[in-house]
Amino acid sequence: MLLLIEQLLNGLQSGLMLFLMAAGLTLVFGVMGLINLAHGSLYMVGAFACAGVAAATGSFWLGLAASIAAAAAAGAIVEVAVIRRLYARDHLDQVLATFALILIISEGTRWLYGSFPLYLNVPPSLSGSVILPGGIQYSLFRLAIIGVGLLVAVGLFLLIGKTRIGVQVRAGEADREMIAALGVDIGRLYTLVFALGAALAGMAGALVGTIQSVQVGMGEPVLILAFVVIVIGGIGSIKGALIGALLVGLTDTMGRVLLPSVFDLFMETSAATSMGAALASMAIYILMALVLLVKPGGLFGARA
Amino acid sequence: MTRYLTTTALALSMIGTAAMAEPVKVGMITTLSGGGASLGIDTRDGFMLAVEEAGNPELEVVIEDDQQKPEVAVQLSDKMIQSENADVLTGIVWSNLAMAVVPGATRQGKFYLSTNAAPSQLAGKGCHENYFSVSYQNDNLHEAAGQYATDEGYARTFIMAPNYPAGQDSLSGFKRFYEGEVASEVYTQLGQTDYAAEIAQIRDSGADALFFFLPGGMGISFMKQWAEAGIDMPVVGPAFSFSQDILPAIGEAAVGVKNTAQWSPDLDNEANKAFVAGFEEKYDRLPSLYAAQGYDTARLLLSAMETADVSDSDAFREAIRAAEFDSVRGDFAFGPNQHPVQDIYVREVISEDGTLTNRIVATAMEDRGDAYAEECSM
Q1: CA distance B367 to A98
Q2: What residue stretches are annotated with the Leucine-binding protein domain (chain B) (predicted)?
């Protein structure tokens, strides 16, 4: 039972990190109608900036700040230099151009940092584990990630729901031409939204890179998951991204843990673990297919 | 000046005074971009170090990047064979790429010397007289880890690997020599980076030791998260997760872990000392297992060129099979299926003046061949 609760926490934590990635992706897609494959590269930029600055200064926190700044800056530059020209084009052109960006950013990172994975570790103040009520031993850093994820979620809801910028973003989603005609500087709004999404991705990269590996190409697997999340949640919806991310995080974690033991009930152990693991890796895509079957526009999709 | 000398040497050889000096063209296909690039770069650098040290003008090397994609590797091998006219192919890091390239290349009469990947299929029924593995057979390091776990008296071991052919081979290799009980057997996803769920299972399993095979970035992620979890349990695995290319990224979390390999930077023989010093001087970093394998492969090839012409395939094959070179591993010989028969060591990760590296603490297996040699009819 305790193990089950610990696994639920693990699912929650991986879901919240996915949310940081998916939030930016869904905003950019919702507001600007742009498919941005290079979102995973911004995640990588964040992780490398954090590792680089943490190694140079010895401070993880400076590294974390640098990751947000570097990813936001990279996002803004990319938006102004490349993405801006793509809004009016069709999705195929956008996919091609942003795929080129993946290659350019990856090889650029390799050129700057070399081909070997970088060192980045949990800061001493957050290392080790704590005993939660009920006697569960859980990693302090992962708890902190859960906390950060929840804070960002609340912050984003307030930003989109309660502020002037949020109103403009929502208006932009509904009718791009009209909001431009009303005198909102749509170009600046787009750059801002893009940089915000990039900053969230960069922060996720730094936080996840701390407990995983910081290396070239780390962003692409996460990008695929983030796309699954926004398809499940409904494109353009922050609420959908949150629910979708939690669903994907929990399904993935619980699938990995539970499926092999389910198969173990009626199969030989070795085959059961192999079969269970194989099915677990499909679980989130099965979930996506089921959601699309019932709600073709995603759970909270505006354009069903 | 050197260029002038080289030309002179070439001219002399054309006159025919040096009977054994027929040019050999090597096509190296390895991973130089993407997430797995560090392995290919070390393979290349080790190989080229030996080539430069030898300074043999008859050896020409063409290097291409396979991007860790089987289809790219196949295209490159076609290009190497058809337009470059390479005599020998080498360099592939990954078993799935080797499976895509090696059978075709050997069928066309080319030699393939493996610097790393050595899947069971190519060691058993699919063995070929033109295919040599200079590194090991894929199962070897896992078998040695199983033997070590037995020697240490671990009673219940938790074993874990990614769910793909090399991962399944890994766990069966471990179990082949492990006499204790397997506490639990877990397959993770290939490329998985979060192991919180598995670590919770390990803690809950009541095992007294952990064996895992997670190459590259997967191993970095796992070891960092394992250290965070603070579980007091001996860990053993093959060298891939503790090789010099990724040790700095894991950091102190790796110190004390036992890992198995057929080579180590502190292995005490003249060839190895010269190799480690030469590599450090040229590239300003410590060599990894992949670099050592690349270096040995080049030296094997150079030794064969001393005694035979590549145009005489049978003689050249015999010359490679004789393995008349000073391996950085000390003793080195080929078994009947042209895979190495060699000692496999247990290494421990240590921190030496702030640099993480490996040091040998025991010998797990002596003169180990492989489990598939009997299936090979050659």
Answers
A1: 52
A2: 23-350
- With CB atoms and an 8 Å threshold, state whether B194 touches A211: yes
Q: Provide the ipTM.
A: 0.82
Cβ–Cβ below 8 Å for B189 and A212: no
pLDDT in tens, B169-199: 899 999 999 999 999 999 998 888 889 889 9
Is the four-CA dihedral B117, B120, B121, B127 of positive or negative sign?
positive
pLDDT score of B303: 95
Of A245, A223, A222, A215, nearest in space to A233 by CA: A245
Instruction: Report helix, strand or coil for A115.
Output: coil
d(CA A94, CA B164): 34
Burial of B310 (0-12, 13-18, 19+ CB in 10 A): buried
**CA atoms within 13 Å, Cβ hemisphere of B17:** 7
Domains identified in chain B, total number:
2
Give the nearest chain B residue to A129 (CA atoms).
B229
Report which of A198, A188, A196, A193 is spatially closest to residue A74, judged by C-alpha positions. Answer: A198
Chain A hits for B225, Cβ within 8 Å: 139, 211-212
Place of tokens 């002596």: B366
CB atoms within 10 A of CB A277: 24
CA distance A51 to A281: 30
> What is the domain-level CATH number for residue B237?
3.40.50.2300
**What 3-state class would DSSP assign to B358?**
strand
pLDDT digits (tens, 9 = 90+) for A25-71: 998 888 888 899 999 999 999 999 999 999 999 999 999 999 999 99
B41 shares its domain with B184:
no
Same domain, B144 and B127: no
Closest Cα in chain A, distance from residue B31 (Å): 11
What is the full DSSP assignment across B211-268? Answer: EE---THHHHHHHHHHHHHT----EEEEGGGGSTTTHHHHGGGGTT-EEEES--TT--
Angle at A199 between CA A196 and CA A203, to 5 degrees: 145
Rounded Cα–Cα distance for residues B273 and B268 (Å): 7
Residue B320 CA to chain centroid, in angstroms?
A: 18
The first and second tokens of residue B336, run together, are 């009947």
